[in-house]
TrEMBL record:
Protein name from the UniProt record: Tetratricopeptide repeat protein
Annotated spans, Disordered: 137-261
Ranges annotated as biased composition (Basic and acidic residues): 148-210, 237-261
InterPro entries given in the database record: TPR-like_helical_dom_sf (IPR011990), TPR_rpt (IPR019734)
Organism: Paenimyroides tangerinum
Amino acid sequence: MKNVLLILLSFVSVQMFAQKPATQIVQGNKQYNTRNYAQAEALYRSAFSQDDKSTFAAYDKGNAIYRQYQTNESIGSYQQALKSAKTKDEKHRIFHNLGNAYMKQKNYGAAVEAYKNALRNNPNDEETRYNFALAKQMQKDNPNQNQDNKDNKDNKDNKDNKDNKDQDKKDDKKDQDKNDPKDKGDDKKDQDKKDDKGDNPKDDKKDQGKQDPQQQKQDQSKQQMENMLNALNNQEQKVRERVQGREREGKPVKVNNTKDW
């Protein structure tokens, strides 16, 4: 039985590699749309291994990895995609999702720069503009966090820093599980988007005079974190609304909200 399984796995691997990268990307999209992110990642990886200049393969790989809570690795894939990206639309989508990944890491300075680059390629995208403003606010409210991220980058080979990264990864997963988009329908995500706008920190100013400074600061920080999580999960909720039956060979398929092809 074991030998039969090994033969079967070998056959699947050979068959996957024999396919054209464009075909593998389309198949990966189908797996992604059914939330089989690990299988989608495998197909995107295979496509990228055959064509490391494929912006689509690198970008889609990053999205599949991101959905598996592997934020650090997803950033690497987005950076690979940027190397071969040619159009403004491609660069806008990649930088936008790169910013989302940095936000998950609480690396607000890097997120600000990523969203800024996204806006340079598409200054009219409202979601990117919103995320950019949110990242700037979080950067302003958490100056020590930016220094911590810089220190972690400079000491990435240090054992203590590795422990911190592992803990951050657990925290990121816990935050994402708390707002798992799998449990939210289309009607709920649209309502959440409206609620997010109403809960924007700028709308809370009218009540600030009623609180003492200490309580006010705590409430603001809590509210801003909730806004950030809601904004990111609204982005994730609308990921991958692809056009069915249409193969994508070098041409992006536009979707309404998330920065996916």
